[in-house]
Protein 1
Amino acid sequence: MIKIVVDAMGGDNAPVEIVKGAVKALEQRKNFSVILTGDEALIRAELKQYKYDESRVEVVHCSEVITNEEAPTHAVRAKRDSSLVVGLKLLREREDVVGFVSAGSTGAVLTGGIMFVGRIKGVMRPALCPALPNSRGTRTLLCDCGANAECKPAYLAQFAVMASAYAKAAYGMKEPRVGLLTNGTEEHKGDPLHQEAHALLKETGGINFIGNIEGRDIMFGDADIAVADGFSGNIALKAIEGCGKTVSEVLGREFKKSLGSKLSYLFAKKQIGSLKKMLDYNAMGGSVFLGLKKIVIKSHGSSTAKSITPSVVQAVDAYEGGLINKLTEAFAELGLAEGGDE
Amino acid sequence: MIKIVVDAMGGDNAPVEIVKGAVKALEQRKNFSVILTGDEALIRAELKQYKYDESRVEVVHCSEVITNEEAPTHAVRAKRDSSLVVGLKLLREREDVVGFVSAGSTGAVLTGGIMFVGRIKGVMRPALCPALPNSRGTRTLLCDCGANAECKPAYLAQFAVMASAYAKAAYGMKEPRVGLLTNGTEEHKGDPLHQEAHALLKETGGINFIGNIEGRDIMFGDADIAVADGFSGNIALKAIEGCGKTVSEVLGREFKKSLGSKLSYLFAKKQIGSLKKMLDYNAMGGSVFLGLKKIVIKSHGSSTAKSITPSVVQAVDAYEGGLINKLTEAFAELGLAEGGDE
């Protein structure tokens, strides 16, 4: 049976919500088991609260935790017995372990992922790729959304190839439409980085490049994949997140203003619920860290069980869909694997 | 009496909605009159439909129109009798004309603005600055949002000074909080451009710099001004716009699903209305093009009367608040006026 390692100590709500989310994921997919890394006593105390198939849960004790305040590179080097490093090493070393999920320090997950799991041959820069909701009811993958603040045109072309493989493997998309996120749809738009990336994307085989897209197209779903440099991709992601939260907040406020408005809420509950569900980033799962030899998923630092569960399910689905093979093959076919590391 | 020129032929809904919006603005402020540039016959035909003080409306006939399809620099040079160029020249030449509003080609407004109105002494790059809604019920100014896809650190520092003057003049803010839009709040975040801009902003006098902010902080209103390079600022703006439109669309869809849901809408109409109003970019007015010697406002290309009216009012208010003087003084006090043009 395949296994997903979950860093039980990572994130603001660890270990309580992480353990809960992992256990709940067992109900959604029957073909995997989970390994929880972290303080065994704490984890066992949490596990006691739930009914689950004990044969599908393993706990690996570790004595250390990496916090958000630590410098990532130093932390993953120094804290070899941390839940994050131990988890990543299990992922690298054990063949039955196929995925890793953490809500811990983004920097540590990225640095540790590259250091302990390693890049697929030819991948210059692994990239973070969340799957955002859109108005069509499908997902828009945004790649990169923060792993690489500084990019070269060739990185962006690789992001397109990696995200296309992911869209096929995890979301069953046939010919995912790839758009380049810029400040206008015309071909000449953007700074030199994006102008060169545009030219390169047009020449890249194996992807369905549809041209430049704008910030609004992410939510409209006019592309399946938005390729971005990690700097502006991060700004887009967080702008959308902020908008979603603000909408939920304003609605909450409006419907609490008076007895009458509270009553109105009862009538509109279902419709408001649909909207909130669409905007709820917690239910979306995490961002896959594309380009590594195995599946690594970064869940939001403020993750509750509600977001850990889909992150774990996402890891299982991406494995079942053959993400790593698809990505490796795509790089080989395009001759990118020959390019080697920069 | 001060005058605002309105380009009656600019935008997707010209001249019908532009003329209507301009006439409606006369009701909101009593201290100005309007000059409409464009095809006189068409404009007069529209004007006939409204009751207004005829002494407050002037029409200046022009025979040409600049479209979105034309190369901006060529168009503003070649079409000297276009509603846009004639309007900008009136702004430059007549002392009683204090502002210009257009929903026409952004590129032509920017190029024409710099060419015919000119930059304030010391301004390296004029910048587009819309005033976005936020969850606090105030405005967040986003500067630049698209005039300059490529920036240098010094431009970003100037955007902060210009937007601060605007926040004081047009929105009565006392010490507007300036944040630098990046991919994380920590000081070291971002690419070299934003790292250098951060250092420069810390040293810039006369502004209230609060550090780096993220995409979500725009809607949260955690800063009054978000300073951005025009590339990522544009992406942030459009991502938020897209999110707002998607929310309105999803709500519309949900409440039309069945007779029951249509009924629900009647109960929740007021609350939904408040949300939609907050997200309605049309009611926000346009983006001021900061750094020019007079007030130039770019209204959305799809502007209806509903967005032309606040754009015109915005021009009046910015003038009354002393925008140009405040900006000129700020540059002089900081010694930036000495720097001269790049």
Note: Residues 241 and 281 of chain B are 7 Å apart (CA to CA).
Protein 2
Amino acid sequence: MTLETVVAAARGDIPADLLLVNGQIINVFSGRITAGHIAVKDGYVVGIGDYDAKKVTDLAGRYVSPGFIDAHVHIESAMVSVAEFSRAVVARGTTTVIADPHEIANVLGCAGIQYMLRSAADQPMDCLFTLPSCVPATAMETAGARLKAADLEPFFQHPRIVGLGEMMNYPGVVFKDPDVMDKLALARRLGRPMDGHAPGLSGRLLSAYAATGISSDHECTRPDEATEKLEAGICIMVREGTAARNLDDLFPVISPDTWPRMMWCTDDRHPHDILSKGHIDAMIRKAVKKGLDPITAIRMATLCPATHFGLGDVGAIAPGKKANFVVFSRLDDIRPEMVFFRGHPQAEDGRLLPHVTRPAEIPIPTSIHLSSSALDFSIPAVSPRIRVIRALDNQVVTDCDIMDTAIRAGMAESDVSRDLIKLAVVERYTGHHGIGKGFVTGLGLKHGAICSSVAHDSHNIIVAGATDAEMKTAVDQVIRMKGGLCVVSGETILTALPLPIAGLMSDQPMEQVEVQMERLLLAAKKLGTPLSDVFMTLSFLALPVIPALKLTDRGLVDVEKFTVVPLFQ
Amino acid sequence: MTLETVVAAARGDIPADLLLVNGQIINVFSGRITAGHIAVKDGYVVGIGDYDAKKVTDLAGRYVSPGFIDAHVHIESAMVSVAEFSRAVVARGTTTVIADPHEIANVLGCAGIQYMLRSAADQPMDCLFTLPSCVPATAMETAGARLKAADLEPFFQHPRIVGLGEMMNYPGVVFKDPDVMDKLALARRLGRPMDGHAPGLSGRLLSAYAATGISSDHECTRPDEATEKLEAGICIMVREGTAARNLDDLFPVISPDTWPRMMWCTDDRHPHDILSKGHIDAMIRKAVKKGLDPITAIRMATLCPATHFGLGDVGAIAPGKKANFVVFSRLDDIRPEMVFFRGHPQAEDGRLLPHVTRPAEIPIPTSIHLSSSALDFSIPAVSPRIRVIRALDNQVVTDCDIMDTAIRAGMAESDVSRDLIKLAVVERYTGHHGIGKGFVTGLGLKHGAICSSVAHDSHNIIVAGATDAEMKTAVDQVIRMKGGLCVVSGETILTALPLPIAGLMSDQPMEQVEVQMERLLLAAKKLGTPLSDVFMTLSFLALPVIPALKLTDRGLVDVEKFTVVPLFQ
């Protein structure tokens, strides 16, 4: 819409496209709720008041809020494409997300970012992005790409790029890693916000981190931690993901003094959570139930993230803002009954409206360059004692155990009687078939194998199994699917979920992915695992930045020593 | 300072330059006041806590706040250069101003903006600028320049330019004037804030104005006006200038809901006011006396304008922010006892410290292209009745009177017995010696003449006098001074103030300008004027955007009809 058109429509010289009448309008600027009509032209609010319009929708006295904003999310964690993610969350009132394509960038580099940008066009909500700052996440594994400041720079010209993504390499910041400094200097030069990720950072190290200009953090777990960061100039994103949930703990920090620099985010939320609990709407409901003023809860989902990211045209219902609205009946239990995006209704009562079209999927290059015939899972036994990863239920950390090697014909093997299961991480990018091998306890498999191409943060293929043959069968299946998850018993694929988008995301609706995930977890339980989500646990066994013992394609990593260690003691 | 240095200093690897110990630190992010020490390196805060430092300054338990920000000011109104303005206001706690060089741009165009930008270097505070959006202010007068969007565009690259200056041509916005649309479109394209100026605008016209993205206003005079604008997405700058003072009226609008989008500004403040009352510090004191929480009052002078203009490195005491501080003893009567700019003390107890150097004045082209010999002040009488401007004390508006012409030898003359004084506006830019002539009542001159090159907004030379000869003598003096003010009686220059910088500003200290202004007003009182500030009144007699009857170089302007009208009825 041209400026001339917006002015003409605001003046009433030309009719509005839509007039939403009889709303109780939540004004995030003044904190007031005012009865009124909202005029919309070409997807933008042009005025509040009496206007001629081509179409009139009566809100019958219901509340109308600006559409919700997720200040920080990895869409990859929802295991679906941008199209399917958009359709799922817009139905729950989210009309803007600030997504960090960190996972797909670790797999496909710039091609992954480009894929996400292209996928974001013509969706029923605004998908904006920060640029992944930490690809690869560490030097102790092989990722699909290595992105330097010069690789990121051209992307900043794209209108969907709002800033630099979470700088999770906080040691790299406080130890002045040149690559990290380059990326921060680039974002500073361009005047773009830089998101942070600094769990537990405090004192002088926090000062060093904040002094670079990094201006948000979504990793706070304690009120004192959040207050210290807030006072250092860092905006606090309160997170409720599937694994990490901080709203209860950080609730005391939200006050009339602090809300302008606080906001909501989901970070990583799995299909089941989004479908059963909701998205940002669920955080608002939870906060209001805990006693937060509903207007403040809404501001933290609208005005605050818009201000933080410098998004002048979202986060409020006012002239010149995008006509993104959420309509609901009760302030004490905000459930989106109607959702508008750019002036068009997209969803009612949590369900997408049938007229909402789904853009075609964007082609994406394959990310798996592997042939299982080249893989050898055998481990010649060289000593009677081995380092073993101890997996813990609902945890991303592990312990490091020392156990007796199970030796058969000179080879170290799984021993299901002692819950000692062979684990391998197969490098999927270079075609060199690099493989790290080790053992895990705690998965509880009695037979069969489980395999996944979701393995943080480099997303090589991780497989755990009772026999080498079953491990190979499982990896074969993942290769055939171009990525995904599967459960194998003997020569049989019990069930599988293809994730053809970078080995991370399905191209199917979120509901189908959820059903298939349930089947996978059920099949894994039948193999004997007691874990509540063995695939989530599995996916973190390869993440070498979280203690204590992890496995990458380079081998076992002692995270505390930040080095690769031998399997045999 | 490089990022590497700031990180090293924050970590304590290298000593700080300065440690301010035992301060009660006002944290604008959390609203808390915390005891602590502030470490400064290379002009930036690097941390709060115990640090080694080359120098230690003990605040002895006094409060320390971020340096104050004036969100909108015309330095020209202080009648001194950037250097002298900076020295005056930093002593009062102001360490950043957002100045709109509207007046000098009307005189010198791009050369005026360039002069201000160059003058801002190496001053004891940060002088940032918005780009004048309305040069010339109207088409009914001859200004020194005409600035289109293409003229402004290159300036946006300059690091001191933060946005587009107040769009006072609000009719041009709501009537879609192409030049205005171009300037707004330019600022939008570059993602820069656009300041507003829309007194009394309401309803659909306000919606049209706000829908363009203009995001501030400093012209509110009533609480309901401010609330309506705030709810339309416009940040409210509460103004206390010399003429227009709105703090009392707008005070009820400030609340825990609204403060994040409200801030203080002075707009136009004369030397006497700055020297006797203060600057932003005076507004904070006044607001706190009226009952505002001191932290909120300080935030409106720090965090809020910094957020509004996207200034990430000022407005707070936190790592990575400029070390701009104000130290004071009482929250209920905040009087700057020490002022730091970039880590260096600049002032104590309202007085500049002797070590603060004064950069050399920047050369500026002359703006007066006139020879008084070419001027003819005579007015052949063509009718017995004339339109007369009625000047009103302390008002920028005038009335339009109809009076009998005083005719001598066929010429219309002044008649001091009826307080009918001849008025002329002489165009000073083109060398064409255009002159508008008329009469004013209310000035009260019994003899002599007063003359000024400050005449809003085009700043042609305005002169009022009892005789043509005295008017000519006065204009001669202003030409000789390359601009300024003078009072003439007969052939004698009673007193004069040279304003060699664009005919608007002195190159002398503000204290000297104040003294000279007092002398001028006293001399004018001796000529008979009852007005409290006859030069201020005079300067608005040429402003053809404020009712009712004004005089420009093109002639008498009926502001309500927006047209030039004849002197004789």
Note: The longest strand of chain B covers residues 16-26.
